[in-house]
Give the backbone structure.
Amino acid sequence: MISTRGRYALRVMLDLAENSDGAYVAMKEVAERQQVSLKYLERILPLLVEQKLVEGVRGKGGGYRLTREPDEYPLGEILRATEGDLAPVACLEKGAKPCPRAKGCKTLPMWKELDELICNYLDNKTLADLLDDKSK
């Protein structure tokens, strides 16, 4: 399940894509447009900056902006920056200890297939796709 943090990160990225035109956008403006607490956004943005998805400048005229074009942001990358692993079950998470039941697990192939479907879907959809969908 994608948390509020992941959903808000997508909304922030979309907002920056729609409203920046290359300029820095104040987080206060994004918070108002997205109806999200500024304090909450201030906890999400460092994750996006750390992964170099956005860049920020402090002070007058400061704010945040995308580091790439919207079509260069797979949604999976954004969600992994805020959510970590997107695996549907703990045994498929990156770095998980091998499950002692894996050899005989009849559900493991289904979980692996679901994980692959989720990752393929999110890694092949971009911010640009969401922007295009919103204009229809």
Q: What stands out?
A: Residues 24 and 65 are 5 Å apart (CA to CA). The chain has a mean pLDDT of 93.
